[in-house]
Structure formats: structure tokens, C-alpha cells
Amino acid sequence: MIYYKKDSEGIVSLTLDKSGERVNTINPQIAKAFLPVLEHLEADKSLKGVIILSAKRSFLAGGDLDFLHRAEEPAKIFEHTALLGEIYRRFERLKVPVVAAINGAALGSGFELVLACHYRIALDHPRTLLGLPELSLGMIPGGGGIIRLMWMLGLEEAYKFISSSRQIHVKEALQKGIIDEAVERPEELIRNAKRWILSSPCIEKPWDAEDRIAKESNPKHPKTAQRIAKLSTELIAKTRNNYPALLSLLNCMAEGASVDFDAATRINARYFTAMIMSKNCRNQTKAFWYDLNKIKQGMSRPKGFGRFRARKIGVIGAGQMGSGIAYVAAMQGIEVLLRDVSKRLAEQGKNNAREKLSHLEKSGKMTTEQAQEILNRIQTTSDLREMEDCDLVIEAVFENMALKQRIIKEVELEMQQHSFLATNTASLQVSDLAQASIQPENYIGMHFFSPLNRIPLVEIIVGKKTADETVARAFDFVLQLRKTPIIVQDRPAFFVSRVASTYFMEGILLLKEGQGPAAIENAGLQAGMPMGPLAFADNLGFKYIISAEEQAAQQLDGRYQASPAIAVLQEMLAQERYGKARNGGFYNYKEEPVRLWGQLKENFPLAQEQLLPKDLQDRLLFIQCLEAVRCLEEGVIQNSYDANLGSIYGWGFAPFKGGVIQFINDYGLREFVARAEVLAQRFGPRFKPSASLLEMAEQDTNFL
Predict the structure, then answer these.
(1) Is-contact 515 616, C-beta < 8 A?
(2) Which of 342, 301, 287, 295 has the alpha carbon at shortest distance from 318?
(3) Taking the CB of residue 539, how many other CB atoms lie within 10 A of it?
(4) At residue 680, what are phi and psi to the nearest 5 degrees?
């Protein structure tokens, strides 16, 4: 892992190179390998300096998540974290300069090692990302990085940076003072590091000065105490205590600012250990590391087909969705031909991309030249014949069966035989659309979500005649867009819309039963959903929901069972309440702040019995999980990791629970089934656990 080399000038290079791995990570065994190296460095009287570098394309990707995720003894976690803190501290206290020569990503524990060095030089390259992403996995940094950044940036700025889990590029890091120098070429890293070492710099860290408490961040200072209290209040209001890692971060900083540096790092290690052992951390790590990596590695992709990489794509329909697809494709270096019925409309779609790029320019995330280069990749047309050299054509017009089928017939005549055609649809059956195709095996559904540049999910919808090779190519293309593909079968509402609808429909049903609207909304938010179920319905619009239900009724024939919640929506429409787009649904949107419609209780009187918050939350969450299990049983979706990421990215299912299926694992199969049976007895058979769930509970097994 660590290769030692000393040159004639007395400068030692330590090269990190974890054997047999694509990236460098740190686990207890590797951490211990640093100890004899440090002992040797500390004893070397002729040592002039140390350069830490990497033989990989990245610098140091962080801790070994397998070790952390599987650990069952808090003492072992604390021991490992304390050892890391000691290693970083010993580098920091060497009597000679230590330089980090950062050739690629330095994240998590790797970034903490960088912060412990006396000087930091980074290669200015897109892959050189710096940051502490631990909060995104429900944990906090553990090796003293919190305390060092607090000293460097101040408490509030450090809190914002760490809590965001942002991974920043070199120029921003240089601007913030997180690194000291940026270079354009790899060979400059070592050369400039040696030059700095030989300049005999002062290497004392500010926290090792005589007065070793961070005065500017001291919580005993009235202004700092007031700001910490405000941050804490804002945090609890925003997260509803569902994300304890954020509060642990703030507490760690507040406590660490009151003591000397070494005591602060011990506090840091204790908070880190507590978070690693928490359920939230296990759930988030499973979703955003293990489940996500299974998707990225192609576990659900059909096997036996070479990797597809699009060179040029066509997009038909330059509206919000079509222009959004064109934009994200161009951002990834793909040439795009954007087509609409007129050149003017196509240019309007290109202008949407231009506005997004302009925003990135103004925020300093992109140069004018880079933005123009991306925009130049989007060409516009009104002529379908120009689609002939596209590797893939995506149709993104209105949800109208006749219109989409007409486009299929027209565009297939112009496409090459090896290319394939996709429809962006949220509700129409792909197999029905494919009846208009002369090559249905090359036809597939791709359900993008709005806002497209922010939501990373794409549902790949497999029609009855869609070939496996087409599925594999669509999967590869979505990954090429740096989005997350989940594969679903062509069933009514697919997966995301089908399961998400149970959330807002249950909320509307609770309103019909006479539960307080504010209590319903608060229950959804407290359960970890991004918005209450009534607000969710407002966002979609009541006519859209009713139309989707009518479509499901047609597709399911006699198997469809209308929800009593539809009657509530029809009553709202009768009173000219349509949803957010028309400024009035369950909420009033004409006023600030937005409030629940004052006449809701008149139209839906309160019942004498008001349910406990736990009953409300369980109804809203359990109904989603049970529907997701039905989707697994029916083969709508193939595995739990697609379901988990689909639920989190698709409609915001509580990330700290790890997704709809991991929620059941976290709850406990037997306990979940028992609670579902109680809900079924009290509120209706829709909560009754399926035979497969009962069998799993009997066998005491979990979803993988």
C-alpha cells in the first residue's frame, strides 16, 4: 500500500498504491501499515520533507465502507478512528514539511489526510474532487477533518461545507483556502512540492500555537453561541430529527471548539462511532453505496451484449422534457439533433439549454468557452430526415397515443437499422405504442423525470417485444448521461408512478375520513417525505391524477378498483380547485406564506376520533412499501435495489430509511408484517401483507 523512496536531497516520497484495487481506501490493516513508516520518518535525522502521492488515478477515495458497514462492535470502530486521528496527527507534527500532491479525487478519510498536511498542491483536472461526503451516507467525518476545517474556515462556513457533502473542484478549493496551489500538469506536483519543502517554510499549525482553542469559533462567545442555537433550530425544523448525523456534526463542532485540538479530535471520533452504528447510517450506506453500485455495475442489465456508447442522438419534441434531455446529453459530450414541427420551436428548446448554461457560467462553475462548446453540440431542425445518422432517437412529445404512433412510423423510415427508438412516457403502455413500429424489438420506453437536470432517475420500460439488446443499450445510455437506470416491465403506471400514487391517495383518503389536514401533512413530513401528501397531489394537479386513474382503469379492465380518494378530487374540481398550477388546490398559492385552504374543514369535517401521529405516519409509509412488494411479486420491477433507488430518486421516499424495501428490512420483517396486519384490521384490506411477505416473516429472512 505505501511505497517509500528517499532522494538525494533528503525528501521522502510516500506513494499510496492499494494492491489489486482500482482506488486507494483505508481500512484498519492499511492504517496500521502507516505506523512503521511514521516511526522511521520520526527517527530520520537527515529527513528534509515528505511528499504523499498516489499511484492511482485518484489520490485517496476514503474509508473502507465494507469494514464500516459490517462492523458490529463500537469499540472496534472507535479504535480504528482513533488510530486514523493519531496517524494524521503524527504527520502534522513531523519536524519537517509534509506536502499532499493531489493527482485526483481526495474524499472522506483521504481528504482528512490532505488537511493534515502542511501544504496541499492539486492537479487542476475535472476528476480532482475534494470533500467530505460522509453526511450523504448518514455518517460524519471521523479523522479530525471536522476540527481542522473549523479552524481553517470558521465554524459556520465549515458546517455548511461538510453538511452539504459537496465535492468541489480545485479552483473552488483554492479560492476557499482549502488547498494552497493548483498545477496544470502532473509532473509539476512533485517538482513544486520539492521546491516548497526546500524553501524552509513555517509549518506550525494554528491549533498548535500556544493558545490552542479556536477563539473565533468558541461557542462561549455570545455571537457564536447565538449562531449555533440558530443553526440547531433551523436544522431540527428542516430535518425533523430524521438525520441525526447533521446534529452530531453541529454538536461535534460546538464541543470541539471549547477544548484543545487533541481533545476535540477524540470528541470527533466518538460522534463518528455513534453515527456508524446508527440505523440511519446503515440504511443510507446500503442505498447510496451498495444498491447504487449494483445498478452502476449493471447487475440488472441483460448480459452478453457489448457496451453501447451514443455518439449522436435525436430528440423529437423541444418542450420542457425534450430540451432537458438534449441539455443533459450535450453536457456529457453527446451530439444532439433537437427536432420540433418548426425550426423556431426547436430553437426555443435550445434556448432552455442556453439559459441553464448561462446560470452555470454566472455561478463560476463553467467558463464561457465551456458553455459555448456544450451549446454547440445541440443542433436544431424541423426535418425528420436528418435523424438518419443518430445512434438513438428519443421521442418526447405529448402523452398522446395517436401522435406518438404517427412519429414512430415517420421516424423509423429515416433511422439506420442498427439504431433504436425510445419514447419518453409516464403513463402510456410501450407495448401498445410499439404496434406502430416495424421493428418493435428496437423500441423501448424511457421515463425521464422533471426537473430533468436535478432528478437522477430514469425508468427503462421494457415492452412485450423489446429485445434484450435494446434494453442493454438503453441502460448504457442512461449511465452515459450519469443518471440511474432502473428496469421496469410494461405494466400500468410502471413502478414510480404506481407506488408514489399510493402516498398521496392515502393522504387524500385520510382527509375524507375526517383527519385534520395539517396533521396529515405533518405526518408525511415527519415520516421523511419531501412534502405532505396533499401538497404532492397539488403539485401533480387533480385533473392529471383523475386522468391517470381513468387510464389505469382502461388498462386493467375488470381488475381496477377505484380509490375513494377520487371522490375528494372530484369535489375539489367542482369548487374550481385544480392544484398548484392554477393557484389553488388543498393549499392556497396566491398568498405568502402558502397555507392550507381555509375551507378544507368545512368541506371535509373533522372526525370525532383523530388518529395518533404514529398511525398517520404508518399508513402513509406502509401503503407505499406494500405496493412496492406487490410490484416485486408481479415482476414489474426485478429487485430490491432498483426499488429502493427508484423510490428515493423517483418521489423522495425517506432517504434515511434506505428506500421502500429497505424500510421493511429496517423495521424487521416479522414486526412489519405484524403491524401491517393491525393496519389491515383497522383501516382496510389494502394493508394486508401478501403471502410472500408472510412466508419471509415465517422464515425470518430479509430482502437482499
Answers:
(1) yes
(2) 342
(3) 15
(4) -65, -40
The b/e string for 288-323 (b: 16+ C-beta within 10 A; e otherwise) is: bbebbebbeeeebbbeebeebebebbbbbbbeebbb
Q: Nearest to residue 130, comparing CAs of 29, 184, 60? A: 60
What backbone torsions phi and psi does residue 691 show, to the nearest 5 degrees?
-60, -40
Q: Which residues pair with 448 in a beta bridge?
A: 458
CA angle 194, 200, 205 (to 5 degrees): 100
The answer to whether the beta carbons of residues 55 and 2 sit under 8 Å apart is no
Using DSSP bridges, classify how beta strands 587-588 and 595-596 pair: parallel, antiparallel or unpaired. Answer: antiparallel
Cell of 40: 522511521
3-class DSSP assignment, residue 79: helix
Non-local (6+) Cβ contacts of 244 within 8 A are 275, 278, 280
| Stretch 38-61: mean pLDDT | 94
In this model, does residue 218 exceed pLDDT 80? Answer: no
Grid-cell match 425517506, residue found: 654
pLDDT at 237 over 90: no
In Å, what is the CA distance from 128 to each residue of 60, 124, 151?
11, 7, 23
pLDDT of residue 361: 86
CA separation (Å) from 129 to 58, 118, 133, 469? 9, 19, 11, 35
Is the CB of residue 422 less than 8 Å from the CB of residue 393?
A: yes
Q: How far apart are CA 159 and CA 149, in angstroms?
A: 9
Q: Indicate the average pLDDT of the chain.
A: 93
Q: Are 300 and 638 in contact (CB under 8 A)?
A: yes
Q: Output the nine-digit C-alpha cell for 354.
A: 442556453
Give the span between the Cα atoms of 665 and 669, in whole angstroms: 6
- C-alpha distances out from residue 307 to 87, 90, 245, 301, 448, Å: 42, 46, 39, 11, 22
Among 126, 117, 127, residue whose Cα is nearest residue 152 = 117
Question: Rg of the chain's alpha carbons, rounded to an integer?
Answer: 28
* SS3 at position 380: strand
Label residue 556 by pLDDT band (50, 70, 90).
low
Q: Are the CB atoms for 97 and 49 separated by under 8 Å? A: yes
pTM over 0.85: yes
Query: What pLDDT, in 10s, does the model give residues 416-433?
Result: 888 999 999 998 999 999
**Max CA pair span of the chain:** 87
- Does 8 have pLDDT greater than 60? yes
Grid cell, residue 449, equals 423525470
Q: Is residue 610 over pLDDT 60?
A: yes
- pLDDT tens readout for residues 175-188: 999 999 999 999 99
Is the torsion defined by CA of 365, 370, 372, 377 positive or negative?
negative
| pLDDT above 90: residue 444 | yes
Cross-strand pairs, 338: 315, 380
**Which ranges in 122-221 belong to alpha helices (H)?**
145-153, 155-163, 170-176, 187-198
Pair 126, 78: CB distance under 8 Å: no
Pairing of strands 420-423, 335-339: unpaired
Candidates 94, 21, 25, 10; CA nearest to 61 is 25
Residue 119 pLDDT greater than 90, yes or no: yes
142 within 8 A of 84, measured Cβ to Cβ: yes
